[in-house]
Amino acid sequence: MQANGVVYQEPPKGVESARATLRDYLSIMKWGITVANLMATFAGLWVASGGHPPLTIMLFTLIGTMFVVAGGAALNNFYDRDIDQRMPRTKMRAVARGKVSPGVALGIGLTMSAVGLAVLLVGVNWQSAVCAFVGLFVYSYLYTVWFKRHTTLNTVLGGVSGAMPPLIGWVAGSGGTLSLAAWCMFFTFFLWQPPHFLPLAMKKTEDYRAAGVPMLPVVRGFRETKRQIVFYTAAMVPVSLMLTVLGAEGWLYFVVMGALGLWFLYLAVKGLLIPPEKDMEWANQVFRFSLIYLTALCIVSVLSVSIL
């Protein structure tokens, strides 16, 4: 198998896969990412229903989304096994090592995705299934197969998949409708993706270079990467606050997310002013804060609606 000049040799069949453990099989589903997506789904569901989602709808939405996201992660592990093997950050993944065979990973990914879509279609509504399918298609095919390997816009274009969970939750909680507030939530999560992942890409630039992945820091350098982090952060802050302006969130949300958004923007702009030798320290700081911001966004979205 070959990607951007990188050749990958499949491990001999039966050598490693026979020693695969339950933990190895679970790891290919990227449960940390899956849980984060479930938080976003729940936030969208809660806001759209005004804080009163039917219990059965909530359970089917979360279960279906969990299966789809975990299935997409397994498909990503299946296809990315060649470049995963070339990067220290990913070379110990179960499929890249051969502990879980590519065929098994593909089967798990397809099965879990199909089950998740069926749960959403039957247990929730067709709109939630469509949103989940779009996210799955963008992540496991467009991003994994094309964007990641061929364009510096991979993080931006792939962000569509990361912004679909709140829409899944929204159409589940609203009975199938997407309001302007729903799209504001979508674009908040979409615009969050570059300021979250580009600092990580800066930290792992040489890994991506060795693997032949055209990440922005590899192709355009750190200066341009930092400019784009500022651009997307500056766009995200006002979009996120529109949820209060449109009446979907209360003032608690506006105050907390406004303060966190301004701090996020301050950190982003700070990157343009620091000397190059401080870049890695700054990238770590921005990456960590992006996780705090996302967690707070999901929590405050729920709390603000509850006391609206």
Tell me the domain tally.
2
Secondary-structure-derived class: mainly alpha
- Fraction in beta strands: under 5%
CATH superfamily annotation of the largest domain: UbiA prenyltransferase
What is the CATH domain class of the largest domain? Mainly Alpha
Biggest sheet record: 2 strands, antiparallel
Taken from the alpha-carbon principal axes, the silhouette is flat
Helix and strand element order: EEHHHHHHHHHHHHHH
Tally of strands: 2
CA-CA gap between termini: 55 Å
Roughly how many Å is the radius of gyration? 20 Å
Q: Provide the CATH architecture of the largest domain.
A: Orthogonal Bundle
Helix content: over 70%
| CATH level-3 fold name of the largest domain | Tetracycline Repressor, domain 2
The average pLDDT score comes to 92
Low-pLDDT residue intervals, each spanning 5 or more residues = 1-8, 12-17
Would you give an account of this structure?
With 308 residues, the protein is mostly helical. The chain folds into 2 domains: 15-174, Orthogonal Bundle (Tetracycline Repressor, domain 2); 179-308, Four Helix Bundle (Hemerythrin (Met), subunit A) (Up-down Bundle), CATH 1.20.120. 77% of the residues lie in helices and 1% in strands. It contains 14 helices and 2 strands. It has helices at 22-27, 31-48, 55-79, 81-84, 94-97, 102-123, 126-150, 154-162, 164-174, 180-203, 205-211, 216-245, 251-273, 279-306; strands at 2-3, 6-7. Strands 1-2 form a two-stranded antiparallel ribbon. A hairpin with a 2-residue loop joins strand 1 and strand 2. Helix 2 packs parallel to helix 14, helix 3 (55-79) packs antiparallel against helix 9 and helix 10 packs antiparallel against helix 12. The protein starts with a strand and ends with a helix. Mean pLDDT is 92; it is low at 1-8 and 12-17. It catalyses: heme b + (2E,6E)-farnesyl diphosphate + H2O = Fe(II)-heme o + diphosphate. Keywords: Cell membrane, Heme biosynthesis, Membrane, Transferase, Transmembrane, Transmembrane helix. Its EC number is 2.5.1.141.
